[in-house]
Amino acid sequence: MAEAQMARGGRVCIIAHSHPEFSKGGGELAAYRQFETMRDAGRDVVFVGASEIGTQYAEGRQIETVMPFGPQEYVFSFAGMAEDRLAWEDGFQRGVLVDFLAALDCEVYHFHHYWRLGTDLIDALMQARPDARFVMTIHEMLAICLHHGQMVKTRSRELCRRESPLRCLACFPDQTLERFAYRKATLISVLSRFDSILHPSEFIRGRYRDWGLTGPRDPVLENYLGDAILALPREPADPGAMAHRFGFFGQPTSFKGLDVLLRALPMALRGNPDIVLTVFGAEREDVLRLFPTLEPMVEAAGPSLTFAGRYDPLDAVELMRSVGWVVVPSVWWENSPVVIQESRRAGTPLIVSDIGGMAEKVLRGVDGLHFKRAAPVDLARVMTEAADPALRAQYGASVRDVIGRDEFLAALDAAYAPRDSGRAAE
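^ that's the sequence the OP posted. Answer follows.
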């Protein structure tokens, strides 16, 4: 208890790979919502996030490395970083940022990610502030996999189940075994010096342990959606009547599996012509630009398929209450998709791929249904079954809610508490 009180009293700096003002991915939203929650709880907290706008300006103008962005908020330019953005090419900019962070005089530096932040920056800040404690929230597997952290093979959409230099070389033949070995050794060396590594899912904790990351405390802590979203109501008035309405939420990237869902839709319609699919997060043109071969299927779907365009994350829960099922058809493992948390908060059951963090976060028979990853035929079968009003009512009644504010803050206090032995003694 004394340690937790000490953690609550000290200043915390949250350092993120982006500011949600510029990019609304799950990781940066989780970091900023943590900042807002701690601030509103009366904690002394500062937010520092990377800025893509700063990078664009930096191409042709001299700008400050760190800029104020709001009360206790700052953004910085990550221009001058190496190609995979895990180390800085511009040592001067890195040094300016390290000096700024060290001067904040925080007891805890909480990193959300290492991408765009730099392992060399982390190392330099640890040297500059040996008295501080360091915490990292892991959002995906970029340290393990050079393919955007997806652990999906570059020459196919096959899943990669274990990292090794030879496997990595097959995906990136222009690299060398020595570079992969050096990259892994460097990342493990830096990450192992953290006091705590927070994993939003048991799945990703297992992956990092298997990879060789040992030493830090590594609890599983689900990201917090924020006080505003936790205050929203759950469940539509007549859930059974929504059974035939399906929704996809998010960006239509090749890893998110929207193409799998669109291929499944015509087959599902043959099983139940009342099925309706709404794509939230993209326009029709966006999808066909990425998946041009799907145009005949999109045309054939007619009024059964609607593209609703982009949406504000604050509106996600309300939008999810307008559909009977949220479909998460990702073809990569995922970690702890914010879409799943938002859907659980809305009280809307899910249909998800049967792998990784999706299969962990959505309990089959409780929160929703699973289908075989990247298999449109199996997804169509599940959608047809799910369109039954009685089944939808059954699953909607058993959807678990997300982590609460008090539980989240208590877990942070435990992660921030001093370890029995510091990094200097390791």
